[in-house]
Amino acid sequence: MAVLIILGVFILIVLGLGSWTSAPGYKGETTNHFNGSTFINGDGYQEKTTSDLLKWMTTRKPGEWKELNEEDITFGKKPTSRVNDSTQVITYVNHSTFLIQTDGLNFITDPVYSERVSPFSFAGPKRMRPPGILFDDLPEIDFVLLSHNHYDHLDINTLKRIKEVHDPTFITPLGVDLYLNKKGLSKTVSLDWWQETTVSDSVDIVAVRAQHFSSRGMFDRDKTLWVGFVIKSPNGNIYFAGDTGYNTFFSEIGERYAPIKTSLIPVGAYIPRWFMSPVHVDPAQAVQIHKDIKSEFSIGMHYGTFPLADDGQYDPVNDFNKVVGDENFILIGEGEKLVRD
Q1: Which SS3 state, helix, strand or coil, does residue 264 take?
Q2: Where are any strands of DSSP class E within 135-199?
């Protein structure tokens, strides 16, 4: 009887935490990727089941990771306050966080400055590399681009800090704005796939298709959308892929938004392939995306910072170097910047 009571209490705690961490869901008309309740990836996507998750969790063979401290890396120089022409200055913070400066505007993508990407401060994937740009060195942020609501992409503590210091507009997929509003971040714009918003006289932001999923708790699976973004600029467009598995729609992104001058494409969290392939590309597929969208130049991301899958800290780098060939596709270190005239 005591065991049953303990088990019952445990289940209630788990369900309570799942309810507490779950985010509000989007409500709207049905579309070809929203059935009135949840969002859908469409053709070519194979949903993994709870039994698949349990299989992975019980058979994991994670690669090696080593925590690096501030003294182990060189922080990048404090970024300039503005880039007033259409030159693209892109600084890698780490994971999927980039500072993008162009056309007099400052954007930051999926900013994460917390030590863990988890609903808890004491458990969950831990940061293994410090951000390459100190938070206090960030210039004034005008727009925050959020690709989806997973903890390694939507870090609410970081977003609250950014709001307090910079008071930017947060551009999100459908439904993610509801969670931000609930947390006191009211300056939001939400977009569906292929929708866009004007942010200046010369720049528009487009939400584009991605293949992924969403959730922050046990009861909000796929209740909000996931996207990539294109920054439409007079000097060529910038593509931020967010999190995604591989599919055929990347060619459509390339056709719709040519010329894509610079792309930011994930290369990590891809092992084991039988489980991760629907939602995370591997380095070879990242290179294929670069080709599909006809990107002039690409930078890899989403690797080496948080142990999210079974690839080790340097597996994405090693596997990327094996497949990249002579493509204009590189990996850069934390705090490094790329200038695209």
Answers
A1: strand
A2: 143-145, 169-173, 188-191, 196-198
Name residues whose C-beta falls within 8 Å of residue 64's C-beta, 6 or more positions apart in sequence: 312, 313
264 — alpha (psi -120 to 50), left (phi > 0) or beta? beta
Q: Which two tokens stand for residue 55?
A: 């299989």
What is the Cα–Cα distance from 252 to 50, expressed in whole angstroms? Answer: 32
Nearest partner of 135 among 162, 102, 163, judged by Cα? 162
**Residue 137 DSSP symbol:** G
The pair of three-digit structure tokens given for residue 36, joined into one six-digit string: 């009135």
CATH for the 2-340 domain, from 1.10.260.40, 3.60.15.10, 3.40.50.2300, 3.30.450.40: 3.60.15.10
Amino acid at 135: F
Distance between CA atoms of residues 228 and 244, nearest Å: 8
Per-residue pLDDT of the chain (341 residues; tens, 9 = 90+): 333 333 333 333 343 445 557 889 999 999 999 999 999 998 889 989 989 999 999 999 999 999 987 777 777 889 999 999 999 999 999 999 999 999 999 999 999 999 999 998 888 999 999 999 999 999 999 999 999 999 999 999 999 999 999 999 999 999 999 999 999 999 999 999 999 999 999 999 999 999 999 999 989 999 999 999 999 999 999 999 999 999 999 999 999 999 999 999 999 999 999 999 999 999 999 999 999 999 999 999 999 999 999 999 999 999 999 999 999 999 999 999 999 99
Decide if 164 contacts 189 (C-beta within 8 A): no
Q: Identify residue 5 by its one-letter amino acid code.
A: I
Angle at which helices 315-323 and 283-292 cross, to 10°: 50
Kindly state the tokens that stand for 103.
């056309």
Residue 165 CA to residue 187 CA, distance in Å, equals 14
CA gap 11, 7 in Å, rounded: 6
Domain segments of the chain as ranges: 2-340
Say whether 288 sits in a helix, a strand or coil: helix
**Whether 299 contacts 339, CB under 8 Å:** no
